[in-house]
Amino acid sequence: NSLTSTANRAGFRIVPGAEALRALVPEVDPRSDLIVVLSHEGIDIDRELAAAGLGIDVIVGGHSHTRIDKGEWVAGVLILQAGDTGKYLGRADLTVRDDSLVSADCRLVPVRAAEAEPSDRMADLIEVFRERVDDEYGTKIADAPAPLGRCYFCESDLGNWVADRLRESVGAEVGLINSGGIRKDIDAGPVTKLDIFEVLPFWNQIVQFTCTGEELRTIALTNSRAEAEELHGILEVSGLTYSWWGSPDGVKLHNAMVGGVPIDPARRYTVACVDFVASSNAEKYLGIVPKDIEPFGVTLTSAVMEAAEELGIVSAPQEDRIQRVEIDFMAPAGR
After folding, report:
1. What is the CATH superfamily name and number for domain 140-324?
2. In the predicted model, what is the mean pLDDT of the chain?
């Protein structure tokens, strides 16, 4: 349920993988020699499924981008995953006897795409779609004086730029965008609509909510923990600045400000976000559950495209909006 926005799930009932398999395996087992599960839930959940005694034989997994060179056996179930970004093709030669998987010879085959030449028929097909994409997204809309890059666990110049455009699009005081939703760096030079689409390919909807200053501090603390412990990609921020430190008792918020002014715990602040964060993953990313989420009927991708075209330039320095404070806990008192 957390992998896509609430709107995208409308009309669907999504059940845990183990529950679905308990219903399906008895139906397909009499008609098969081998039961192979295609999973996109990550290696940890794949291991749980394998250990659950569900009657499956093989799990071909994804999402966690785990490279498993020779396959991994858990409770007699073979788990396969071939890393990320198409670097490898997984091959598994299986021996099946009496309705059971007896053995497996598994390996990863490197994909050397740069050395491959497409057939004439495939090259013609690629060109047809390239022309369609160029017609729609090939237009130059801005220039980037210098490269802008991403960071999954820390503040980045590209994250700052996207968060600023998000906040400005609805006039909010704070803008928050999950770093994992920023999927490509921007090179110096001309910037096209396609560049922006490749940076923000998910078409997440822009939403706004309000929260108290105390809740906003909770959001900053939750984000600090995500950075300190690398729990997941952090939220890039706009309008909000804060610092944190790691104490023996855990991560602590040092200070937090909005617009350069210390946060008032009792005051309410407007926050611009995307539905993937605010509606589908609020507790994970925010540490709170907003109660007054207001959709704006526009995607982050289209809003950022429009902003880039209007500004004509894509540029944002990394401004230390998020800072880690180092404290020497072994220093003598009074130092």
Report:
1. 5'-Nucleotidase, C-terminal domain (3.90.780.10)
2. 94
